[in-house]
Design goal:
Ribonuclease iii, N-terminal Endonuclease Domain, Chain A; three-stranded antiparallel β-sheet; mainly alpha; 10% strand; 3 strands; Double Stranded RNA Binding Domain; 237 residues; cytoplasm; 10 helices
C-alpha cells in the first residue's frame, strides 16, 4: 500500500469515526474481488461483507423496535428491508466516499465500477464488518445508528418491497411463509449473476435474477406478485 493510500484510509477512518487498531481490516473491506490475487481466494471483502450484513441487520432491527414500539411486525419488516436494501447501503457508501477508496482491477474501474450501486453497497457492508471485527458490536452499532438515522424520516413514504408484500399476501391467505432457493450462480466472482426461486405452498413457484442474492429474491417475489394479480407489471414506455 502506498503512503498516499495509507493517508487516504486514515481520512476514511476519521469519516467513519473509528480509529482501526488493525488497519489491514479496513483495507481488506475495500478490496473488490476483481483485485483479489488468484493464489489468495479469501483476499477480498466478501467474507467481511457477509459479516457486516448480519451486523447491520441486528443494529437496524434494534433501532426500529426501540424507536417504533407501537408498530406491527409487518410494518417493521417492510421498513427494515428499506433500510438494509442495496440502494440505501450504496447511498451510505457514497456518503463515505467509498468509491474513492475501493481497490479494484483496472478493467472494473474502467467500466464505472466505483459508482456501481452493488459494489458500493457490498463495500459498505464489508466496512461495517471490519468495524465490528476491529472494535466490537457497540462501535459498529454507533456508526450504523448515526448514519442510518436520517433515513427514519422517510420510512412512512417508503414503497413496500416485493418480498415484504409477498410475505403479507401469503399470511393473509394463511399460507406458509415464502421460501427462497438459490438455483444458480453464474459469471465471474467480481460480477456474478444469481437465479433464485420463490416457493409458497399451494402456489406455482417463480424465478428471478439479479446481481446479488437480494436482487434475485426481490425479482422472484415481484414475478409472483405480478402473476397472482397483486401488483401490476411496470408500464412500457
Amino acid at each position: 500500500m502506498s503512503k498516499r493510500r495509507t493517508s487516504d484510509l486514515s481520512q476514511l477512518s476519521a469519516r467513519l469515526g473509528h480509529d482501526f487498531a488493525e488497519p489491514s481490516l479496513l483495507k481488506l473491506a475495500l478490496t473488490h474481488a476483481s483485485a483479489r490475487p488468484d493464489s489468495k481466494p479469501n483476499e477480498d471483502n466478501e467474507r467481511l461483507e457477509f459479516l457486516g450484513d448480519r451486523v447491520l441487520g441486528l443494529a437496524i432491527a434494534e433501532l426500529l423496535t426501540t424507536r417504533f414500539a407501537e408498530e406491527s411486525e409487518g410494518v417493521l419488516a417492510r421498513w427494515f428491508n428499506h433500510l438494509v436494501r442495496t440502494e440505501t447501503c450504496a447511498e451510505i457508501g457514497q456518503s463515505w466516499n467509498l468509491g474513492d477508496f475501493i481497490i479494484m482491477s483496472g478493467g472494473e474501474a474502467g467500466s464505472g465500477g466505483r459508482a456501481k450501486k452493488t459494489i458500493l453497497a457490498n463495500a459498505c457492508e464489508a466496512v461495517l464488518g471490519a468495524i465490528f471485527a476491529d472494535g466490537g458490536y457497540e462501535v459498529a452499532r454507533r456508526v450504523i445508528h448515526r448514519d442510518w438515522e436520517p433515513y427514519l424520516g422517510e420510512l412512512e413514504e417508503a414503497a413496500p418491497d416485493a418480498k415484504s408484500v409477498l410475505q403479507e399476501w401469503a399470511q393473509g391467505r394463511q399460507l406458509p411463509l415464502p421460501r427462497y432457493l438459490e438455483i444458480a450462480r453464474e459469471g465471474p466472482d467480481h460480477a456474478p449473476r444469481f437465479t433464485t426461486e420463490v416457493q409458497v405452498e399451494g402456489v406455482a413457484p417463480e424465478r428471478g435474477e439479479g446481481a446479488n442474492k437480494r436482487q434475485a429474491e426481490q425479482a422472484a417475489a415481484f414475478a409472483m406478485l405480478v402473476r397472482e394479480g397483486v401488483w401490476r407489471p411496470p408500464a412500457n414506455d
